[in-house]
Write a structure and sequence with these properties.
Length: 132
């Protein structure tokens, strides 16, 4: 087995082990783990089937199999960036909504405290007026 195939298989197995371990420890969510498992599976397929990269390069009109692998890696990274950008946008919206809710709750809390202080002052004034 050529060294590059062995190295590819070891890298894919390492990715699989790390992803499964991170999921087990709840450090990685399932929606991200699925993407990394697909990447590892793709590396295993490319490393396991000897002529597949060359065949796919010839099929797509790319001159070298290495260029095909770089193009595939670029598309995978583009997909990762798009997915993470989408997630950041969603989290940004969620944080903004949460901050607005906290501000409204603080305002309401201040109103309730003011009303409570007024009622306590009124009750104390009545108690002072009642005492001889």
């Amino acid at each position: 087995m050529p060294e590059w195939r062995l190295l590819s298989l070891l890298a894919a197995v390492s990715v699989l082990v790390v992803v499964v371990e991170m999921m087990r420890r709840r450090k990685l969510r399932e929606k991200y783990a699925g993407m990394w498992l697909l990447v590892a599976l793709g590396v295993v397929v490319f490393a396991g089937v000897p002529g597949l990269p060359t065949f796919l390069a010839d099929l797509t009109g790319i001159q070298l199999a290495a260029n095909l692998l770089f193009a595939v890696a670029a598309f995978v990274l583009l997909f990762v960036v798009l997915q993470l950008s989408s997630e950041v946008g969603h989290l940004e919206e969620e944080v903004r909504t949460t901050v607005e809710e906290i501000a409204l709750l603080r305002c309401e809390l201040e109103q309730v405290r003011g009303e409570l202080d007024r009622r306590l002052s009124a009750a104390e004034d009545r108690l002072v007026d009642v005492k001889p």
